[in-house]
Amino acid sequence: MAGLLAGKRLVITGVITKDSIAFHVAQQAQEHGAEIVLTSFGRVRRLTERAAQRLPEPVDVLELDVNSLEDLAALPEELRSRWGVVDGLLHAIAFAPEDALGGRFLTTPAESAAAAFQTSAYSLKAVAAALAPLMPAGSSVVGLDFDASVAWPVYDWMGVAKAALESVSRYLARDLGVQGIRVNLVSAGPLGTVAARAIPGFEQLADLWRSQAPLGWEIEDPSVVGGPICFLLSDLARGISGEILHVDGGFHAVGAPAL
In sequence order, which residues have a C-beta less than 8 Å from that of residue 222 and are 6 or more positions away? Predict the structure, then answer.
């Protein structure tokens, strides 16, 4: 569907390497005609800039630490001078301290749980609210999710943060809908990105999908998520908001063995 995103100006967060889900969204968005910028910060920014050069058309990487009020204020000013408007945002940001993962749910300190919430859930509101004044009616916000309807092995406080993300997205859909801005999530199956592999016990989750997803699931293929996200960013999804779209090989529909 050439031109699906023609003329759209998109902000894409969360690109670290070419294996990132967000990288494949950026690549497919460009192929569908979008103009994009990436965001990154700190030591990771050099990796993001390297990945940006591997896109069909190299793009700029703008500074954004979602927990920095200064960055959240500076980003819309940069985009206002660059584009004037923003048509879409991909939120692909999540983080939990090491002591909030890997089976340590009962011993996780409050500050680590709060850090997981702020970076992984509250930041969706923070970035969307920062960019909303630049977003015309018909714009779209899409966030990356992992099914938070059950308790997964090893996922612990990141799972709680994803449950919060799902709630945040619904409240954003409510409050931004009056401006004609759509807010949706894509709940992907486990993929072997740099961030995912850092989760202790990641292979436990991956094995569940390999054995249970009706369509099968290839953890080394993040490109499968790019198309559905581009759809939600496009005008074809103009009537969809507050939704969670599962891109998981059908796993969510059939459940899993006892965990």
Answer: 19, 20, 21, 23, 24, 188, 191, 193
Task: Identify the active-site residue in 8, 122, 125, 162.
Answer: 162
Alpha-helix residue ranges (DSSP H) falling in the chain: 21-31, 45-52, 69-82, 110-117, 123-131, 156-176, 194-197, 202-212, 223-233, 251-254
pLDDT classification of 257: cutoffs 50, 70, 90: low
| All structural domains of the chain | 9-254 (3.40.50.720)
H or E segment to which residue 89 belongs:
strand 88-91
Confidence of residue 259 (pLDDT cuts 50, 70, 90): very low
> Of 8, 18, 122, 155, which one is the catalytic site residue?
155
Residue 155 annotated to the active site: yes
User: What are the tens digits of pLDDT across the range 209-229?
Assistant: 888 899 998 888 889 999 999
